């Protein structure tokens, strides 16, 4: 195995709340924790901590505490931080729900997670309420942050000014959050992350991500996803930086907020890098406040990254991680001037990694430390204090992903170089990333099989003209059936969140399958890489 080139960091044996806010310096209380990028409204650390405690008190009074799961379904608004940390402060578990989900998708997560309460916002209430009521969650347990008739609002709960409860649990085993991820195979599963997992990942990320209290950090990556949750809601707040929230991506608004709020540190996914490198609008804004742009969640093209650095006159960095790793496992250090963008950087402190042949499980030979050599490619496995406890209620999936010795299968093919940098070569697992959002092929395949004209189907990710991944379906029609690609895509669009749309369709005679009936995605990908007619 190989380890981090960085010295280990101390991981306090505390809850997320106690780590982040327990020992806050009095001089930090009046710093601004959150700025609403849309309205400009400010929340200080003092106000945020007061709200977190008041919400925890109201939750406790409603009987919510250790053992309960509360769903949080909202775009990036400052109140998200209050609710997220309030749920954890009350000892309950937060399951964060994608704001783009339709009622059926929300319901599936609420049921699987066993949520008994839901926080949402008024524009998302129709689908949230449909899902909650289908699961038997009563209207008084559906709280609308900005208020709506028939439901409590966040301010109703905060105005009760109830003291936070005394809760006790073991940070190492108590589940703090349940984000959903499809992992290496199948449908989305609840990823059990403990308080210790989240606390560890904050401490592990500090040396390489280098945020400081004077940073104004643009929070456009969704808080519900583990990247935004850990890097923005936990890490940035632990550094006493200021988060500038943006509820949804829109290029002009993104650029305006950076300019007007003088944002210094911006976390993105690769499609935003494409816009920053190429879009003419970028020249119309003053982006001189930005010192660093950090990309993650999908592969960043090195040339594209350089183009962004040159155009904006800032440093570009890349990180890698996955929900099951809380999520950060690798990052190009903030301080590494001139670092090549062709890697995801070095392993975080307190972690161990292996690269193994995915067929045989044999470990590759690692290059000598400091040499220019690169190992052979294989599946990356990671161990450390940030590795999840397991998948909720799915021991089989947990066993397939997590080895007994604590190493987690990432499902990504990687190499490591003598300088400790890791390169992600390709994805071995089924997962598709559309603009950094997870799309589980198994979910789309099950949906397609429910279409009356379809006999068989498989879904993989293919690259569009910008080099970004999009879902493509291979479809076998029932004998005598006729349906156009456009009609099929429209049919899927009506039934899934926008990021899960099928964007390409190919009609084929058969889906390649192994003897055991597994879809041979490798063969579909290989056929895709070979130009038609060759
Ligand atoms: N290059 C190639 C990358 C990369 C990548 C992710 O939805 P999940 O489970 O989780 C994430 C987490 C992203 C992330 C976490 C911490 C961090 O610092 C950072 O960058 C600043 C990003 O996306 O998807 C996990 C899967 O996404 C792919 C890879 O396949 C991984 O298993 N992935 N980052 N830089 N691929």
Automatic annotation (TrEMBL):
<feature type="domain" description="AMP-dependent synthetase/ligase">
    <location>
        <begin position="30"/>
        <end position="392"/>
    </location>
</feature>
<keyword id="KW-0436">Ligase</keyword>
<dbReference type="InterPro" id="IPR042099">
    <property type="entry name" value="ANL_N_sf"/>
</dbReference>
<dbReference type="Pfam" id="PF00501">
    <property type="entry name" value="AMP-binding"/>
</dbReference>
<protein>
    <submittedName>
        <fullName>Acyl-CoA synthetase (AMP-forming)/AMP-acid ligase II</fullName>
    </submittedName>
</protein>
<dbReference type="InterPro" id="IPR000873">
    <property type="entry name" value="AMP-dep_synth/lig_dom"/>
</dbReference>
<feature type="domain" description="AMP-binding enzyme C-terminal">
    <location>
        <begin position="443"/>
        <end position="518"/>
    </location>
</feature>
<dbReference type="InterPro" id="IPR020845">
    <property type="entry name" value="AMP-binding_CS"/>
</dbReference>
<comment type="similarity">
    <text>Belongs to the ATP-dependent AMP-binding enzyme family.</text>
</comment>
<dbReference type="InterPro" id="IPR045851">
    <property type="entry name" value="AMP-bd_C_sf"/>
</dbReference>
<dbReference type="InterPro" id="IPR025110">
    <property type="entry name" value="AMP-bd_C"/>
</dbReference>
<dbReference type="GO" id="GO:0016874">
    <property type="term" value="F:ligase activity"/>
</dbReference>
<dbReference type="Pfam" id="PF13193">
    <property type="entry name" value="AMP-binding_C"/>
</dbReference>
